[in-house]
Amino acid sequence: MRLPPIAPHALTAEQRALYQDMRAGIAGNFNAFQSERDDGALIGPWNAWLHEPAIGKAIWDLTMAMTANAVLPDKVRQIVILVVGARYDAAYEIYAHIAVAEREDMSPERLATLTADLKPVDLAPDESIAFDVAYALVRGGVLPEPVYRLALATFGQHGLNEMIYLVGLYAMVSTTLNGFNVPVPERE
Predict the structure, then answer these.
(1) Cα–Cα distance between 34 and 188 in angstroms, integer?
(2) What is d(CA 118, CA 126) in angstroms, rounded to the nearest whole number?
(3) Residue 6 neighbours by CB under 8 Å, 6+ apart
């Protein structure tokens, strides 16, 4: 880990406001996995965002806007996020979203295949399209027109927009995690 976690008592006023906002949001939306140490210091991408609170707040606001305005089914969202995490080999991202996907009753076989950067054979049609969108985007270049049209017909413009933004957001999260070598906590 390249950025030390900041204990709550050591936060600046700017960091404290972001910490409190992130902690409340994590408790309500991202509570399937470990996000803080015993002393209350945040781990995962949240620690990195606290080190640069002006940037961190912007990323956190985007994260919460993506959560509050979600129209995609949760399983579809988790497939997209795991495709991104697998492509970037972002260990904490994979750890966290496996925990979330397990709550969505995703099978161990599906999770193993997704995290191996492969397409599971048991995807529902909408999940398969979501996989294809995310898989194409994380490899770079323009999303192929047939994939775009199929996703548009399946999810509508708002849903497809969300999916594209979700890939971008989690690419940034994965890059943050990898850049700062954020470790994975022990699974309980």
Answers:
(1) 9
(2) 17
(3) 15, 41, 42, 47, 50, 51
Per-residue pLDDT of the chain (188 residues; tens, 9 = 90+): 899 999 999 999 999 999 999 999 999 888 889 999 999 999 999 999 999 999 999 999 999 999 999 999 999 999 999 999 999 999 999 999 999 999 999 999 999 999 999 999 999 999 999 999 999 999 999 999 999 999 999 999 999 999 999 999 999 999 999 999 999 998 66
Q: Where are the domains of the chain?
A: 10-68, 74-179
**Rounded Cα gap, residues 60 and 26, in angstroms:** 10
Q: Which amino acid is at 15?
A: Q
Tokens for 120, please give them. 């599971």
Name the pTM for this structure: 0.95
